[in-house]
Specification:
This is Lysophospholipase. It is a single chain. By secondary structure, the protein is α/β, with parallel strands linked by helices. It has a single domain (46-181, 224-302), classed as Alpha/Beta hydrolase fold, catalytic domain (Rossmann fold, 3-Layer(aba) Sandwich), CATH 3.40.50. It has 11 helices and 9 strands. It has helices spanning 9-16, 22-33, 94-102, 129-143, 156-167, 183-193, 200-212, 221-224, 247-255, 273-276, 278-289, and strands at residues 54-59, 65-71, 78-83, 106-110, 148-154, 171-177, 233-238, 260-265, 300-302. Strands 1-2-4-3-5-6-7-8-9 form a 9-stranded mixed sheet, with helices on both faces. The protein is globular and about 55 Å long.
Amino acid sequence: MPRSAPLATAALVGAGATALTGTAALIAARVLNGPHRPDLPYTFTPFEMGVEFEQVTFPSEDGTVIRGWWLDVPGSEQVAVVSHGFRGDKSQMLGISTGLFRAGISVLLFDFRGNGDSEDGPQSLGHHEQQDLRAAIGVARERRPDAELGLVGFSMGAAVSILVGAEDPTIARIVADSPFADMHGVVAAAATTARVPGAFAHLVDYATRGLYGYGFSQVRPIDAISRIAPRPLLMFHGTADRTIPVEHAHRLLAQASPSAYLELTEGADHCGSYFADRPGYIASVAAFLRGEELPPSGAVQSR
């Protein structure tokens, strides 16, 4: 699982040297939305996990070419579309994806635009990426039209899963690990961690609007989460998350319907619930996606 920090701490520290200046805001906006690729393109695939897979390529809604892996379980009754976090890629989702595959669930995992094997396109922190997830859902539905379709997302991918799933009634269930409630809040939290005044987030928002064509107010899972009802939503969050504070999870749950559940992992950092108990995490997610194991209505549980 990626640490997938929505605003890289190093960039914010550098921006803090000239806090609240236009130059610093432009730098931070580019960190959020500008292109970024690792120096070496090598990555693990399902081959390393001993799982057969098919490479898939499909266009996003704006034509950006998206690439992913299809892990097929013939005759499976569930399909999970798995979304990675900010600046991550699909290889970081191999643990949960191959675990669900071995549990009898077909899986489509893919790279958001500008990451992994997918083409560059307009990038963001969960705004443009919604197009990619909707396109991936279309591919999964074409390949298994009779199966229940679920979403599994981490960090930014979790926020995107909430936003997209809320508007698509054909999604049966959603798993969101470490989602943020609103983009402004998570950027402001990153600024505070780097000892940059919280008002800096407003300048980054302004720069993002001018340079990249969207604003933070357009990425607010907290405004969409109630529309997931009555479908089940399972959230995970670490109580020691330094990237997306756990209060985001509590705010989301407060706005969700009773069909939403929150599982807290004591002492875990960002996306750390999986690593705290890999077999247990996979088993819980698989059972949830199959509708076999639902927590008490509106529950908050601790791992």
